[in-house]
Amino acid sequence: MEFKASVIADFLHGTVEGDPDATVSAFAKIEEGHPGALSFLANPKYEKYLYETASGIVIINKAQKLERPVKCTLIRVDDAYRSFASLLELYASSQQEKSGREEPVFVAASVTLGENIFIGAFSYIAGNARIGNNVKIHQQVYIGENVAIGENTVLYPGVKIYHDCIIGSDCMIHSGAVIGADGFGFAPQNAADYKKIPQIGNVVIEDRVEIGANTCIDRATMGSTIIRKGVKLDNLIQVAHNVEIGENTVIAAQSGISGSCKVGRNCMFAGQVGLAGHLAIADGVKIGAQSGINASIKKPDSVILGSPGMDYQDCIKSYVVVRRLPDLKKKVDELERIIKGKDS
Amino acid sequence: MEFKASVIADFLHGTVEGDPDATVSAFAKIEEGHPGALSFLANPKYEKYLYETASGIVIINKAQKLERPVKCTLIRVDDAYRSFASLLELYASSQQEKSGREEPVFVAASVTLGENIFIGAFSYIAGNARIGNNVKIHQQVYIGENVAIGENTVLYPGVKIYHDCIIGSDCMIHSGAVIGADGFGFAPQNAADYKKIPQIGNVVIEDRVEIGANTCIDRATMGSTIIRKGVKLDNLIQVAHNVEIGENTVIAAQSGISGSCKVGRNCMFAGQVGLAGHLAIADGVKIGAQSGINASIKKPDSVILGSPGMDYQDCIKSYVVVRRLPDLKKKVDELERIIKGKDS
Amino acid sequence: MEFKASVIADFLHGTVEGDPDATVSAFAKIEEGHPGALSFLANPKYEKYLYETASGIVIINKAQKLERPVKCTLIRVDDAYRSFASLLELYASSQQEKSGREEPVFVAASVTLGENIFIGAFSYIAGNARIGNNVKIHQQVYIGENVAIGENTVLYPGVKIYHDCIIGSDCMIHSGAVIGADGFGFAPQNAADYKKIPQIGNVVIEDRVEIGANTCIDRATMGSTIIRKGVKLDNLIQVAHNVEIGENTVIAAQSGISGSCKVGRNCMFAGQVGLAGHLAIADGVKIGAQSGINASIKKPDSVILGSPGMDYQDCIKSYVVVRRLPDLKKKVDELERIIKGKDS
Fold first, then answer.
1. Is B241 a catalytic residue?
2. Class of CATH domain B100-316
3. What are the CA-CA distances from residue B161 to residues B175, B203, B252 (Å)?
4. How many whole angstroms separate alpha carbon B95 and alpha carbon B66?
5. Is the pLDDT of residue A344 over 50?
6. Per-residue pLDDT for A106 more than 80?
7. C106 at the B interface (CB within 8 A)?
8. For residues B174 and B224, what is the distance between their CA atoms, to the nearest angstrom?
9. CA neighbor of B83 nearest in space, from B129, B40, B21, B54
10. Continuous segment of H or E residues that includes residue C124
11. B190/chain A closest Cα distance in angstroms
């Protein structure tokens, strides 16, 4: 789809400088512009690109001064970043406008379907599932028995949701994510063999949660594994059985949360972090990449780093010494020679 | 489904105290009880919940003394934990009672099918596959050519098994697991380019193995990647080509075993452990979370921690010093000043 | 399929010693041979197996001397390893000879299909996708709108490719890999809540790239996440939005590359490596397993190890001291007692 500068300016309540009939059909960073692309300039650091960019239209702040002529058409607005972001959102939401049902799909007779739902081909909805209004179930999705899904939630191709799990409204779950597989629980029996502990709980995901591709959230042994409102999980994350993750906590890719951990609100975990089982993490805790946490963190807003985890500043100081350990050892050996030499 | 206290007591050879007509339709931990839920009490630590719980029925040990009246109906048995576990198993196995074939599925004409098999919609079984009795192939599963699957094995939605792999009896493979993708083998050619080394072996999974969601087990270059009887693998684990994992070894989420490793029996690896290639790990070895193992472990029952891995106790002692390294360095610098000062 | 020694020798331009009518139907390592298997001997380390192997036919170098009689039929060639590899490749490529279309599939009317394409059952190709000649789309694959796929590329069962992504020629993508899911981008709003930043870029994968099972490559926020020619990615790898990975770089399983990293050519990363965001890694850099890189690496061909990463040799030296830190601390304490004792 092509849009004219004049139409975009109207939508943004902005003003055009240049050709009001200039058209664009794509977005691009100002430094990667091309004819037919719409860009924006907000950060003064990128100002030089305003004069070089190949983009057809650039959104700028009203206050932006021009030092030289520009080749592109300009649209001046109050807040260039915000205006550009609102266009991106408009574009992104237009991608989710599908509704109806492709064929073949499998929808059990006892499923309850809201309005304006999309069901992509090769998707499967088992008995007694309840699907809210405006839900988009893309292709090759599996929804088990008794699953409930709230309004406006989007399930990308290949998502698997086991029986009895509950997904909130306005969630987005990416391809390959597995919600509700069995928790990892086995009781030793005989000398060396294991017996499976049945995992009969479920997963409860509240509203506005985003879950990345191939992330796994295991069902509880009993009760629920709970992901609270506004949580954002990146790709390839492991969330074990009976974990609870507090509101608006954000976790980066490949992190793993062991069984029965209780993570607070507004935490931020970087990538490849690991938490041992049964830990409590206070609200607002930040944990650096690859950290390994083996004890509860009780102080809110702690900043932790390392494996095992420790106070961030202490960890940075320790790392500085670790890098120079061979020197430290040499120095100690030298001191020992001096002292023991004197002693002898 | 609802069950009366009297029916549950009969099944467990127990006795009812309270209302024999009380009914329950769910399981709950005693501390998370609700009307209509069945709970148990075995651990004295939780005894106080017996008087507080909202659960309708609680299973307790015959010997359990009551200090106060309880609101719930009690069922007394010899071993409350075991009785409760047997009910959980009964419930869990009832989830796997499906048989027959949903539509559409793709089953090649040359497939050999046992009795009482379930094949879910959108599943695919390629030529010459052999599927044992009572196997449950859930939805959207892929089974490649010449694959053999033993009796009672359960494949959850979306499992992918490449051609020629062999799966034992009584196995459970969770959604998104990939069995038999190519091992990661490339030979340098020219200056900087790589040529793929064909991966023509397979994966052999023996009986009673459980494999977690999105775990990957690569096929051997030649021969077999082998997962022995009773092995339990958690989610998001990587098992590279030509690995062998010994009987009843248990590996937690996000661990990775590099090519040609030979892991012994009854080992336990915690989460996010990594093994370098071509290592041999003795029987009964325990490896702590996030450890990185770069040498074979020859002593059975070793307990290892750290990256690189070392004896667990030594590692814990080293970690204590690491946390205080800046202090140690200060002390050494101070000693140096004293000594060098004297020397000068 | 069975092959006679005389036929194999003709194909390899070799000569038969023994029974020209001996037949084989499988490949095996010489030390794991069985009747009906073809093996090779190139490495003198394995020479003893030549006299012990149960393989029916063994390919050896022309120059190979025999110290004792052998039981198997021999085929002598100029380069036994290369001849064997060429047979493996012939076998592996014969696995990809399928073409045509299984049913059911979903192929939108606006899809452009080349010649000799295979589309497996339950696969989905959305509008305006362009599929090159000889592409093999195995079962349960999802190809989003406007995706382009070059010639000879193989997509294994269950691969998911989101809209607008571009895949080159001669690529191989394994089961469960997710190409083009949203990058992980959220802007804080209000006190503690997050707003999704639309991810409207794509993923561009150039020619001869291999991508492992369940690996995730996120689409760019704007612009492209780029995987250059000849890159090889193992299983369960995370590649975040706006990353660029240079030609012929090889990355082992479970590594994670954070957003906007630019990795050079011909790099080699071992398993479970993590890179922080916005780093530049020079060409030819090698990074050891479980390393955590938090700063750009500017020197080509650097060899890096550790978390945080440092020069490989320095890291090894530090690790040696880390293992003996408790001893070092004791020594320092002892020196202190001696010195302070003197001082007092």
1. yes
2. mainly beta
3. 11, 9, 22
4. 36
5. no
6. yes
7. no
8. 21
9. B40
10. strand C124-125
11. 34
Equal CATH topology for C3-95 and C100-316: no
pLDDT per residue as tens digits for the range C298-310: 999 999 999 999 9
Phi, psi of C224 (to 5 degrees): -135, 140
- Residue B128's pLDDT band, with cuts at 50, 70 and 90, is very high
B19 contacts B39 by C-beta, under 8 angstroms: no
How close B317 comes to chain A (CA, Å)? 12
Q: What is the pLDDT of residues B231-252, one digit of tens each?
A: 999 999 999 999 999 999 999 9
Query: Of the candidates B99, B105, B139, B104, which has an alpha carbon nearest to the alpha carbon of residue B125?
Result: B105
Per-residue pLDDT, C344? 44
Q: Which residues of C are catalytic?
A: 241
What is the rounded radius of gyration, in angstroms, for the C-alpha atoms of chain B?
Answer: 27
User: Residues A35-86: pLDDT tens digits?
Assistant: 999 999 998 889 999 999 999 999 999 999 999 999 999 999 999 998 998 8
| Structural element, H or E, at residue A336 | helix A325-343
The continuous run of DSSP H or E covering B204 comes out as strand B202-205
C317 three-class SS: helix
Q: Which tokens go with B279? A: 């290592």
Nearest CA to A199 out of B9, C176, B189, B213 is that of: B213
pLDDT reading at B344 higher than 60: no
Query: How high is the pLDDT of residue B178?
Result: 98
Residue B188 — very low, low, confident or very high, per pLDDT cuts 50/70/90?
confident
Give domain limits for chain C: 3-95, 100-316
Task: Count CB pairs under 8 A between chains B and C.
Answer: 172
Residue A342: the pLDDT is 60
- Could you give the CA distance from residue B219 to residue B259 in angstroms, rounded to a whole number? 10
User: Region B124-129: what's the mean pLDDT?
Assistant: 97
Topology of domain A3-95 in CATH is 3.40.1390
Interchain CB distance below 8 Å, C88 and B197: yes
Q: Which parts of chain C sit beneath pLDDT 50?
A: 344
Strand-pair partners of C155 = C137, C173
Residues in chain A: 344
Q: How far apart are CA A44 and CA C78, in angstroms?
A: 66
C-alpha distances out from residue C271 to A67, B274, C246, C253, C311, Å: 50, 8, 18, 5, 18
Helix B5-12, helix B80-94: angle, nearest 10: 110
Q: What is the pLDDT of residues A145-198, one digit of tens each?
A: 999 999 999 999 999 999 999 999 999 999 999 999 999 999 888 777 898 999
d(CA C146, CA C164): 5
pLDDT at B98: 85
Burial class (CB in 10 A: 0-12, 13-18, 19+), B13: exposed
Q: Where are the alpha helices (DSSP H) in chain C?
A: 5-12, 49-52, 80-94, 312-323, 325-343
Q: Which residues have CB under 8 Å from B112's CB, separation 6+? A: B128, B129, B130, B131
Amino acid type, B114: G
Contacts with C, A 63-102, CB within 8 Å: 85, 88-89, 91-92, 95, 102
Other C-beta atoms within 10 Å of B44: how many?
8
* Separation of alpha carbons A172 and A149, rounded Å: 11
DSSP state of B74: E
Q: How far apart are CA A39 and CA B66, in angstroms?
A: 74
Vertex C78, ends C76 and C83: CA angle to 5°?
80
Per-residue pLDDT, B342: 61
Beta-carbon contacts of B140 under 8 Å, excluding residues fewer than 6 positions away, are A122, A124, A140, A142, A158, A160, B120, B121, B122, B123, B157, B158, C122, C140, C158
CA gap B312, B303 in Å, rounded: 5
Smallest Cβ–Cβ distance between C200 and the set A92, A272, A325 belongs to: A92
Q: B335 near C335, Cβ under 8 Å?
A: yes
